[in-house]
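Question (not urgent): is this output format expected?
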Amino acid sequence: MEAVRFKQVDVFTRVPFLGNPVAVVLQGKDLSTAEMLRIAAWTNLSETTFVLPPSSPAADYRLRIFTPRAELPFAGHPTIGSAHAVIEAGIVAPKAGRLRQECGVGILDLQVDGETLWLDAPPATDTLLGESDTDVLGRSLKSSVQGAPRIINVGPRWLVAELADASAVGALAPDMPSVAELSDKLSIGGITVYGASGDGQSAIHVRSFAPAHGIAEDPVCGSGNICVAAYLMKTGQAQRMGERYTARQGMQLGRDGRVSIRIEGGKIFLGGSAVTCMDGSLRVPSR
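Got this back:
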């Protein structure tokens, strides 16, 4: 058996076990895609990442990202968690406070600002949801939605919908088989909902459901929060929530993730802290 370096990092928190964990395999270059999928299914986390040498001289490292069932071109919390891991492990050092990560959507910039990592999010496109699918969405969520839901694409595709408020978000008990069926029909990763918060700590509460990927509920979802920010921009609501705001997510799963969003010059920046909870190695079959 061969040992490869491994960390499990909790993202969108500074307190262990309150954020969203990502498994980071720091020596991924000799692993096959099949082995990566097997490891991702074994960790059974929403995402597992594999760090590889970059294929472009413009990048500091390359990242492959897997759910328990499939590879993703990009995801938010794995990007921030993996950046934390490669810095901590001494694999990459920030240059002038910046990192450049290569992944399926291209090369992304990250800024290191004290304990917070800021990701320059990929550009978003959107598609308005049809009336019949909006009816199915309401039945799947077992809740009425506000406004016009949209499919937002930032690499991962999330169906984003606003609910009446944070209480409605917290009370959701979706029909998961129906959510999975709708996700497969629309070729999306899942459904992200949000509602305005009155807790004095955040602007909105967010929940993300991705049963089609084997993830009933993602504890704290970076790409889902980017898609919410894009939805706010595209529907003219960014001023209402603020162009700098904090979202909370994960309370229904015993977590309390805090996601920072900045909207500047039409671009979205995703920010969060991270903390390492496990540090060691994985044993993989020798070649």
